[in-house]
Specification:
2 copies of one chain form a homodimer. Chain A contains 18 helices and 19 strands. Chain A has about 525 residues and is α/β, with parallel strands linked by helices. Chain A has 3 domains: about 80 residues, Barwin-like endoglucanases (Beta Barrel), CATH 2.40.40; about 200 residues, Pyrimidine Nucleoside Phosphorylase, Chain A, domain 2, CATH 3.40.1030.10; about 80 residues, Aldehyde Oxidoreductase, domain 3 (Alpha-Beta Complex), CATH 3.90.1170. In chain A, strand 4 and strand 5 form a beta hairpin. In chain A, helix 6 runs parallel beside helix 11 and helix 6 crosses helix 12. The termini of chain A are far apart. Chains A and B meet through strand 2, strand 5, helix 3, helix 5 and helix 10 of A and strand 2, strand 5, helix 3, helix 5 and helix 10 of B. Strand 2 of chain A pairs antiparallel with strand 5 of chain B, so a sheet runs across the interface.
């Protein structure tokens, strides 16, 4: 039932305004349609053209230079989604709310939803029928303890079905994912060349940083082009068995990206949404085997062992039912992994390890080898417990470095030379003792204030880690910036607090993790 | 702490785009600021000018005719909120989320919030620091059973404090409110002249219809100007003791309007939000005594007696603590009140009652007299139980009509003559029997499809009410439209269903209400 009027004809025009994932339509205030229909700015309208229709949020324009009274302006995404030609005739009507909002309202009232409900919801979201506020309502209603584990499974399936799914036509497609929250921690850039050198398929895509000082994509970009066309990525993966590309395509589980664009600014997330988001992306990318890294620590994303265990079980429950071979390891998230935080400094750590340099950070090397070992054990021909030794052999022999260089060449070597920022200052210990705590969140903030990840050379270089002794006045870390304003922000931020706690060896928090 | 960079200077320009209550800023894609800061469309930014700052959602523009690379375009509301002159220099930075979102996140996690939290939240909302999605998150988190009664009290106080508060400097300022959902039911247009004729102050403001076929404001507009400047309204109320004006000002409890603009399209509401919304508006308007009409019926907003009782207790709890003399009556919401549905038809009913016409609908007259009687009993000099007789005497004597005419003259008589729409058709009974059900929601839909409230003459005129007998083929109601397309929509809608159930007198649902 359409409870509204369909307007007389309007001529459509493309407005060169990018409204990201929200369709916006522009009507002149003197347009007869606007006045007759009692529309209001921010109302949602449906735009009809022949068989096509899209939904858009209405903005009202008072300037004929932008749109005239007989026109309907559409933002770039809306225009291309409708597929209209400039000047084509369209009609508009007040939009009905998407029918799946009934299910969202039932969820708000505490009901359990079925797979068919989640399918309808994701279908409406991917067709741009949800406004940002409708997405926010869905996220809040399904956040926190809003989803039981079968609902997480349903949501994962619905999100997976919302986009394309890559089929590599191989029996074993490995992947690795860290739920994040630990500065540095660039294990993927070591694990991928090791696993690919072994001959196992690992088509790794990563995200850019959103709230952290560097994602794998930002760091890899210091060395190589990361924005690969699908065909080029496939060719590379077939020849080299691995890649380190940016996953920022909307082809795979697009609903995930759309929900994240609302979730992030709201600062809300829940275990259920995290599991559905990660697993739908990985399954859409064609993974058959997945290793999950769940770091636990007082300043990590997961702060208690019981939460890590609950998250692991939830991943296992959903993964098992979707025929994904999934292993989750709970790792030490008490402090940053590696010395560098920020794209250039993290790249330096990674290359030192690949080059077997004596200065290479031991913690990042060890963690990467252990994770790579677990992935290698997905191979039926690798005996249980032998993965680590194989990984170490590949690294020590230089085969991992050679593989990394071939991946870099194939993706396109970054010709611009990057260096740590020219401006820098040290932060020193205020007393003698042992490092008993390093605040992950605080150090990530320092690196971001210094300009990471936008300015590649910005970041923090750690000189001391947990359990190490310092004398009063000895440096704890150095902050690098490329611009004076960033230097000043970071300098001011560490004025009263270094993010380190110096104390007695007895005060180091213990941790009971896989590694 | 500001964790971001403040940009170099941009020249601000006003874009004649009305984005309602959401500030939007437009940056050219080639603007250095856009590229350096890693902004993304839909990101929220802060715009700084001298001491002033506002927040806005970012749209990215590819057309220099809209904004150039050195400019920052602002939508109309954003431009006037900043108070800038065209071409003045501003800087921008990524906006921090509003600090009160911490409280919203705690609410999502199930915590109870304090008055100070609600004050922070409403302060951030009224300062346009909340995006629509943040408002949606707040509404969902506090919806359903999200608020206990002390939280409803806190939210009411916080919303009340978000705007101006009128002080009439009189000991008794009466008001009346119906929670809605019943077509027709124009009791305010009868109650106000009766109460004002008695000499009791009743500065009544009403809303326009949003989802219904007519609000009191839409109907009064058939007779008089309803958009009164504050000074004019005050003068009128001082001389005539009452008015029937549009309340669509943003001065009073503005947070309420802002939340409603998100709540309506989402189709979510909760008792707690309804109570806070209504009471904050009434208190801000200066009411000391309030009569609440809560209709109950199978197709009304409140469907069960237990929900009506719960709502009444919640109103009483909050009203008592805010020193508002509040009486709530639970009334018969099984069917429309009066015969007309739609602005012109409802006006006809009201004027027939004021003129003591023999054709006047008895149900609307009786309900209005009872409600008016209860309001008159707020007067300490009126003996309990005598209000109804006084109200009836005022109506029968023509004093109510005289008062109504003076109010109309003072507000400005509507010179255009309105009539029911020229196009009409009848809907007839398909069988003989007694009317045992009339679907409020269905008839409201018919009237809206016919064009109400936008086309004043559109609507439905009921010929039969609950308990009345009809023969097969006798008309149940007539639908009026002003335009053929509306006629067609309404005609098609009633093709398979009339909204009436004809049956046996025994099947009429019973109701146990005040009146």
């Amino acid at each position: 039932m359409n409870s509204n009027f369909i307007s007389s004809r309007l001529k459509v025009c493309r407005l060169a305004i990018d409204t990201y994932r929200e369709n916006v339509a522009y009507l002149h205030r003197d347009c007869l349609v606007y006045r007759a229909e009692g529309f209001q700015a921010l109302a949602k309208i449906t735009v009809f053209m022949d068989g096509q229709q899209i939904q858009a949020v209405l903005n009202v324009v008072d300037d004929e230079a932008i749109v005239g009274p007989g026109q309907l302006g559409l933002s770039e995404q809306a225009f291309s989604q409708l597929g209209a030609a400039e000047g084509e005739e369209v009609r508009v009507a007040q939009a009905e709310p998407p029918s799946s909002m009934d299910a969202v309202r039932r969820k708000i009232e505490g009901e359990r939803l079925e797979l068919s409900d989640y399918r309808e919801i994701t279908q409406d979201i991917v067709s741009s029928r949800y406004s940002k506020m409708e997405m926010a309502a869905f996220l809040v209603a399904t956040g926190q303890n809003g989803l039981d584990r079968d609902e997480v499974l349903s949501l994962t399936i619905a999100m997976l079905e919302s986009g394309e799914r890559i089929n590599w036509n191989e029996p074993l497609v490995s992947d690795k994912h860290c739920i994040g929250g630990i500065p540095g921690n660039r294990t993927s850039m070591l694990l991928v060349p090791i696993v690919a050198a072994h001959g196992m398929l690992i088509p790794k895509t990563s995200s850019r940083a959103i709230t952290s000082p560097a994602g794998t994509a930002d760091t890899m970009e210091v060395l190589a082009n990361i924005e690969l066309e699908p065909e080029r990525m496939e060719k590379l993966v077939r020849t080299e068995r691995g890649c380190l590309a940016w996953g920022g395509t909307t082809r795979l589980a697009p609903v995930d990206d759309m929900l994240i664009s609302v979730e992030r600014p709201l600062g809300i997330d829940s275990q259920g949404q995290m599991v559905a988001s990660i697993l739908s992306k990985k399954l859409a990318a064609g993974a058959t085997h997945l290793l999950l890294d769940i770091p636990v620590g007082a300043t990590a994303k997961v702060r208690h062992m019981r939460d890590a265990m609950r998250l692991r079980k939830l991943f296992e429950y959903v993964g098992d039912r979707l025929n994904l071979h999934l292993e989750a390891v709970i790792t030490d998230g008490r402090q940053p992994i590696g010395n560098g935080v920020g794209p250039v400094l993290e790249t330096r750590d990674v290359m030192q390890i690949l080059q077997n340099s004596p200065n290479a950070p031991v913690d990042l090397r060890e963690k990467s080898l252990r994770l790579a070992g677990r992935v290698l054990e997905f191979d039926p021909d690798v005996r249980g417990g032998q993965g680590y030794a194989i990984a170490r052999e590949i690294l020590d022999s230089g085969r991992a470095l050679a593989k990394m260089n071939r991946i870099i060449e194939e993706q396109g070597r970054q010709l611009e030379e990057y260096e740590p920022g020219k401006l820098s200052f040290e932060v020193r210990a205020k007393e003698k003792g042992v490092v008993v705590n390093i605040d992950n969140y605080f150090l990530a903030q320092v690196a971001r204030l210094a300009g990471a990840p936008i300015f590649k050379g910005a970041g923090v270089d750690l000189y001391r880690k947990l359990g190490e002794s310092v004398l009063k006045g000895e440096p704890l870390y150095r902050v690098y910036a490329e611009h004076q304003s960033n230097y000043d922000f970071a300098y001011e931020f560490v004025g009263t607090n270094s993010g380190y706690v110096i104390g007695d060896k007895m005060d180091i928090p213990s941790v009971f993790v896989d590694f």
